[in-house]
Amino acid sequence: MRCVNPADWNLTGKKQSLSSAQETGRKGSTRIASDADSHLDAADVSFFYEPQSTRNTQSQETRTHGGDNATTFISTGTQTEESALQQLIQGNLLPQQSIGSTPGPSQNLSHTCGADTLQSAATREDSQSQGPVPVPNSEGISWIKGLANSNHFQTHVNNITFPPCPSPARPIQQHSAEESWHTVCGSPEESFPCQHNHGPPATQGKSPEQGSKETFNIQSRESLKWQSGSQPLPHLTGSQEIPSPGSKETQSDKCDDIANVSAIQVLKDTKKELFRRNSSSDKLVKDAVDKNKLKLSKKAASTANLLTRSSSLENRVKDLTPSAGSSGPRRSTYNLEKLSIKMFLRGRPITMYIPSNVQNYEDLRMELPSEKLQLEWVYGYRGRDCRSNLYLLASGEVVYFIACVVVLYHIQQKTQRHYLRHTDCVRCLAVHPDKVRVATGQTAGVDKDGKPLQPFVHIWDSSTLLTLQQIGPGCFERGVGSLAFSVADNGAYLCVVDDSNEHMLSVWDCAKGSKQAEIKSTNESVLTVEFSPTDSSNIITSGKSHIYFWTWQGSTLTKKQGIFGKYKKPKFIQCFVFNANGDVLTGDSEGNILTWGKTAADIRTLGKGAKETFQIVKQLKAHEGNIFSLCLLRCGSVLSGGGKDRRIIQWSPSLVVEKETEIPEWYGPVRTIAEGNGDELLIGTTRNALLRGSFSEGFAPIIQGHTDELWGLATHPSQNLFLTCSYDKQVCMWHSSEHTLAWSSTLEESGLCADFHPSGKVVAVGLNTGRWLVLDTETRQVISHYTDGNEQLSVVRYSPDGNFLAVGSHDNFIYIYSVAENERKYSRFGKCTGHSSFITHLDWSKDSKFIMSNSGDYEILYWDVAGGCKLLRNRFESRNREWASFTCVLGFHVFGVWPDGSDGTDINSLCRSHNERVVAVADDFCKVHLFQYPCAKPKAPSHMYAGHGSHVTNVRFTHDDSHLISMGGKDTSIFQWRMYDSDLIRSQSTSSGEPTCDP
Questions:
Q1: Cβ contacts of residue 783 below 8 Å, gap of 6+?
Q2: Where does residue 655 fall: left (phi above 0), alpha (psi -120 to 50 degrees), or beta otherwise?
Q3: Segment 579-589, tens digit of pLDDT
Q4: Strands (DSSP E) along 403-499, which ranges?
Q5: Which residue has the higher pLDDT, 36 or 295?
Q6: Which intervals carry biased composition (Polar residues) (predicted)?
Q7: What is the pTM (predicted TM-score) of this model?
Q8: Can you list the domains of the chain with their CATH numbers?
Q9: Is there a contact between 503 and 485 (Cβ–Cβ < 8 Å)?
Q10: Which of 175, 479, 594, 743 could be joined to 499 by an S-S link, Cβ 3.0–4.6 Å?
């Protein structure tokens, strides 16, 4: 007989068959015995010591579990469970033949420690063994957990003492700091240390050879200690000799006497530790999953409301979920010998070489730059999916919103101010009767740590931009859909409808911020809410196929539904207004204006008990298609704005047409109408434009913007101009100094990237079909067009000398064109082939000979364009090369901008300033960052700026670094930030004796 490793026992279970255990393994879960599951006791389990002769008859089955190879041994031997248990406890040897009872599958639970043992470990043979070295499997771990729970098992092992192992200790190799635990299922929490019954080398105190009674006890996953000793047993490595089923051992007679009872004690001692590890593993995985899901929820907060991403966020959550064996995000490492830095994105190493001008990398310090940003101008307006969001204030400013910013635009002075206290997209707006106070509601957002926040309403002073009241945190779900101030009592109350399934209607005291009443309104969409101008106890809501008339008394709200009677019920009641007579006029999706009045009850229709109803008094066909807006003028007339026909009609109090005009098709259907100064009108359209004018003089745009997701951005090399392109197929040139649209052009396909020629005379635009165009910046005419592949283009970039154009495509290639004849002629020069994923960013060297490029799989490659577009294999030689621009998001000079745990898509765009002092970053969490350049240390600090309501897709500095342009994705916003030096302002203020403060 021979000494058996306690972890090497064959186990037989009656309740859980091998096939079910294998099925459990295929599902990737571990079956744990419990009272409700497969609780094991002495009647359910037989475990026995099997002699070598029996072992040699085992059949072996190899399977895959958790991505590693595991070996499961099946024994055909059977015996009576109770008899086997008693014999084992008494220390007797196992009978040579099975006796009685029903046979059950037997599993051999083995172990391994170290890295080598997983190299095809399921079939590797020990040099002294006659069979393969078994490795652990999830069924064995599950069986031990179930066995350790057995009450019958506990009653037999509690009083057992164990003699020392007489075998001398073997030399054991210690793990290095970088080695990790390995297990078949991939989970380090289910790996357990070597349970070999040979003790550690003799130390202080009694040794096993001196007759001390020692037992094994698993203290932690890092060490195995003798119960009465203090020295931990070093970990086994793959090079450690481990007895196999067929190996011969010395002093086997002594080992035979103690093998069984030692193993029982090991099982007993490991019970608590195994369950502790299991729970710790579950918590580790859950925490890692929650962390990644929390990070993605930060991206998805605006996505849920704006549909900001077409890609599936659930798939990203799945991709980011670590396996049970994952140790979380890996930190960047510094290699002094190779002069390199290695960072990790999604576990993939990215090596970057340190330039020779960095003498001591460890002493490099990253600090906040003295430059800061201040929001100067916001281009665009949110009209495509919002209504009643345009008003004229007492200050003469027009108030509206886009993304997370409420804009106050002074038409005459052509200036903007911004209310920036919202944390996510603003959805609705109401103006107090005093025309000074404003209420704005937002969607659910996230805080600076990515934790979800409830939507809320801010009441603020438009003259000071100070928040007067925040109401409703924790009371609204998803977002705030509609707002209205009361009029009869001078705006003392605010009515709110949220975006929950029940569309909760609530009334709030504006001064105290306290809730006065609340009720579920309807499960259908609610589009608008208003107080009666003559009685604050009357409230009206309308939306999908309904209009409700509410009565508010104390804390109670009661409703009465409007009766359509003989009239066809429209799909939506889009808007309503109170006319001079106090009647309610509604505009619906059928193009009708309905007049509602309170009438006596029709007992035949409504039954007994009904006292009064609100019914349609008059119907008027006013427009083709939707009526999105109704506006009561100071003279008592009513304006209606049509959707499909784009007409604005002025109606007399008796609903007779007085005036009529049509908005040009370019600006889109009318979304909202507001009364301006005198006879001026303010119009918001569904194509995100704000118009100003009158019936007599027509309408002209004062604010314009894109209507779909923005990606392409380029700044002029010498003028205050920048160009944007979008999925709406529009290319727009903007004046950054005048804050106006210089020109726009409509393309056949969507534009995704752009770049100016160094001369500024032409601009190249890459499209989503593989085509790219060259436009004349003066005439806006297309002077050249080419096609490279059939996939979208992600980047186009002219060389500094203007002689080449590089085109990066999603087909993994970079196409190089030579430029001639005053930027009018383009000829294919070569193609850079070597990336294994789509091109994301590229930059030219200052001498126009080399290109640095990034790809979707986080590669950094360098190309010799002048030498024939060859890939430079030795990336170390490119470490000192100077780059004309730096927009690549991966590289030594910028890797510090990446936060810990980044998944590779967290940063969409990056741009170094022309003076090479700072680098601006557009991230996937609606933020713009400003870092010091170079930014070559992990966790570098930055100035962070909010305002965008979805992922920020691009950033670029203007030619003189005076401004930074940033673009939102689905929020279609363009922000122009003024950059200033806070240290310079501080020094100037100090020298003049004035108080020091930033703008």
A1: 762, 774, 775, 776, 824
A2: left
A3: 888 889 999 99
A4: 405-410, 415-419, 426-431, 437-442, 445-446, 452-453, 457-461, 467-471, 480-485, 493-498
A5: 295
A6: 13-23, 51-61, 204-242
A7: 0.70
A8: 6-194+207-284 (no CATH), 332-358+368-380+886-992 (2.130.10.10), 747-879 (2.130.10.10)
A9: no
A10: 479
